[in-house]
Specification:
The chain has two helices and no strands. By secondary structure, it is mainly α. It folds into two domains: 33 residues; 75 residues.
């Protein structure tokens, strides 16, 4: 085998290897390419995910509004309770003063 035959044989082998590799790559690509049905399924799942996220956002917003409403009611109830307790202290003081007044009046007799 002379030099020219060797170069030709090497070129043919390399070209054949290239063509076989290209064909194998093409076959693998076609086999692993997603089908139209699977793409439709992925689109449907993406739409469902989007709808679920929107529903979650709406639920979170509703929950936050309800929490703010309840916190407001709690604050109002706390203010009412504080006012009632202060009024009770005032009334107790008045009752003690009236008892002292009655005791003093009864003691003078």
């Amino acid at each position: 085998m002379n030099r020219t035959e060797f170069i030709t044989a090497t070129a043919v082998i390399l070209f054949t290897t290239f063509v076989v590799g290209w064909l194998v790559g093409l076959i693998v690509q076609r086999m692993t390419r997603p089908t139209r049905a699977s793409m439709n399924e992925l689109d449907r799942m993406a739409q469902q995910l989007h709808e679920a996220e929107e529903a979650r956002d709406i639920a979170v917003a509703r929950l936050e509004r309800r929490e703010a409403e309840l916190m407001s009611k709690l604050a109002a109830a706390d203010v009412e309770w504080q006012t009632a307790m202060e009024e009770l202290r005032v009334r107790r003081t008045e009752i003690e003063e009236l008892r002292d007044y009655i005791d003093r009046k009864l003691a003078r007799r």
